[in-house]
Amino acid sequence: MRILCLLKWVPDVDQLRYDRERNILIRENARLMLNPEDATAMATALGLKRDAPDTYIEAVSMAPRGAMPHLEDLVRRGIDHVTLISDPRHAGSDTWATSRVLARYLGTRDFDCVFCGTHTLDGGTGQVPAQLAEVLGLPLMVGICALVKLISQEGQAVVDVEGETAMMRFSIALPAVLGFQYSPERKLPYIQYEDLNRDVSSRITVLGNDKLGMDESELGLKGSLTQVRRLEVDALEAKDPVLLRVDQDGIDKVYHWLEQKGFLQP
Questions:
Q1: What domain range includes position 105?
Q2: 255 lies in a domain?
Q3: Is the pLDDT confidence value at 206 over 80?
Q4: Residue 134 is part of a domain; what is its CATH number?
């Protein structure tokens, strides 16, 4: 079984910066964290590898080179190989341009399944898995809350997806793109003490566009179909707190305030 895990490193919200001239997030030199749904996808893949040691997992990430320490730790956690797709010309890529870059690389790989998160913290549109599957001509299932079974010999994955009113079970033909939703129960393994400083550079490949060979019109802002024209930030208005006693007068004031705001019927 060969699994490709797509991982996105998102800026920590405490250090989020925005380029208002180009209307893009500034990811360079920002403190990065692994997107939670992608972490769930990778934890699921590592769980399969634990039960079937011959499972091969490659993590693929399109990110600045500042993500390298995080990628090294992925290998120390049990990932077989990591590919970092990094090029300054990728800056500002929307979901469409990102999907095309990832599809260009994935089209050169042999795999049984692609694991990823359904959404990302810095986007949330959930477009990349669908666009990637469309470009590669693969079946797609997103919003997966549980992987029931994955059998490469039968060319089949069985997954559970939580709908609004019911839990649904689907069977998907492989190879396919599987998008997971966040699950706190599925956690990444800790790095063993003896592996904390292990040299893993031989198991990491860095690719720029010189290797992928895409036209620059397909990359970054030039290759993005989504154009952000304006960003508006709501200002938070500080208000003085109102202190009330727990007595009849305080209860009456709270009741009337809720009534005025429409929370209670008069």
A1: 2-218
A2: no
A3: yes
A4: 3.40.50.620
Is residue 225 situated within a structural domain?
no
Mean of the pLDDT values across residues 174-181? 96
Q: Cβ(109)–Cβ(159) under 8 Å?
A: no
The confidence score (pLDDT) of residue 29 equals 57
Tell whether the torsion through CA atoms of 241, 247, 248 and 249 is positive or negative.
Answer: negative
244 inside domain: no
| Residue 11 domain flag | yes
Q: How far apart (Å, rounded) are the C-alpha atoms in residues 71 and 83? A: 9
CA distances from 202 to 80, 160, 205 (A): 11, 37, 8
Chain center to CA of 134: 18
| Cβ-proximal residues to 11 (8 Å cutoff; 6+ apart), any chain | 17, 25, 26, 27, 30, 31, 32, 33, 122
Number of domains making up the chain: 1
Tokens of 181: 């939703």
- 41 or 67: which carries more pLDDT confidence? 41
pLDDT of 72-107, one tens digit each?
999 999 999 999 999 999 988 888 999 999 999 999
Burial of 152 (C-beta count, 10 Å sphere; 0-12/13-18/19+): middle
Helix axes 127-136, 95-106, angle to 10 degrees: 40
Q: Can you tell me whether residue 147 is helix, strand or coil?
A: strand
pTM of the model: 0.79
Residue range 131-147, pLDDT digits in tens: 999 999 999 999 999 99
127, 179 contact by CB (below 8 A): no
